[in-house]
Amino acid sequence: MDAQIKRGLLDACVLAVLSRGESYGYMITQDTLGVMEISESTLYPILRRLEQQGCLTTRSQEHGGRLRKYYCLTGPGMARLQTFRGEWREVKRAVDYIMAEEDGGRQTSAAPQSQTEEGDAP
Fold first, then answer.
1. Residues 18, 56: contact at Cβ < 8 Å?
2. Looking at the whole model, is its pTM more than 0.70?
3. Which residues of 19-46 are buried (b: 16+ CB within 10 A; e: fewer)?
């Protein structure tokens, strides 16, 4: 997979996890396992970058005698996730067209799909 595409997908996966509620690094890696594997060494630079961009806020809390850093999605982070979802719908239509095997690769044009359709989230 192209590195730029993968980077965008990783960012979107992290934002999607945090759209469900605050979380911490290890749990974020576990939440994404079924979709895309993110190692902790890959995740933390993503989290730092998203925080610097204003997409996340952090708080620390003691857990088991150590401080655990929790990440929370901000308004700009949710807006970025929504933008990604809208752009992904366009990409998905193009990929569906490319991957079509029926009708000799021809598809009829369809009306834009609703935002609540399954499969539109990373």
1. yes
2. yes
3. eeeebbbeebbebbeeeeebeeeebeeb
Domains of the chain: 3-105 (1.10.10.10)
In a structure prediction context, what are the per-residue pLDDT tens digits for the chain, which is 122 residues long? 677 778 888 999 999 999 999 999 999 999 998 888 888 899 999 999 999 999 999 999 999 899 999 999 999 999 999 999 999 899 889 989 999 976 565 555 554 554 444 445 44
3-state secondary structure of 4: helix
Q: What is the Cα–Cα distance from 111 to 62, expressed in whole angstroms?
A: 50
